[in-house]
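Action item from last week, closing it out:
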Amino acid sequence: MMAKCSVAPSVEPMFQTFNGLQHLAETRRFKAWFLDQFGVLHDGKQPYPGAISTLEKLATTGAKMVIISNSSRRASTTIEKLKNLGFDPSLFVGAITSGELTHQYLQRRDNAWFAALGRSCIHMTWSDRGAISLEGLGLQVIENAEEADFILAHGTEALGLPSGLVRPMSLDGLEKILEHCAAKKIPMVVANPDFVTVEARALSIMPGTLAAKYEKLGGEVKWMGKPDK
């Protein structure tokens, strides 16, 4: 009896390999591009080699580019930073940042969780990087956990003061404040869920580290940004 011979049907590969962003752009398959910034376009201090020219070439294909970032800063500040690093702002349709989302939710309070927050907050922010303004949010910054309604974590370098100034503080110092807040069972809003970020050749501690610590202490955390819990 003659054996039957069968030929397996060809199967499209599940994944495709590209030699780089430029190669992918040349396919013109995608009309919209969502791009992270830190560790993708720049290292916090300068653009990566070829990043600017690649985006400029991508723009010639008609692609629409949007920055998505876990930066605790607002969208307009993010675009301004990219401009200062040498990127043409007109390359981008806009930016979506966790800091912008946090600001909008605190301002609108049309979400049940945010609507239930009070107006007095302990503000953990930046010092060397530049403190983040709470203008327009109607918040009262206080230092005492006994009087706080919630914690707002924008940074890991300083504690915001009622005067609008900041007091530089170590990570250990901020974590001690979290211990007092956890005992009071007040919630935290973290405006940057990253644990670390790239900065030149080093890694810097981000607010997500404080949020993870607070959860371990039993505190409730509202994580803003990607991936949103």
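Closing note: The chain has a mean pLDDT of 90.
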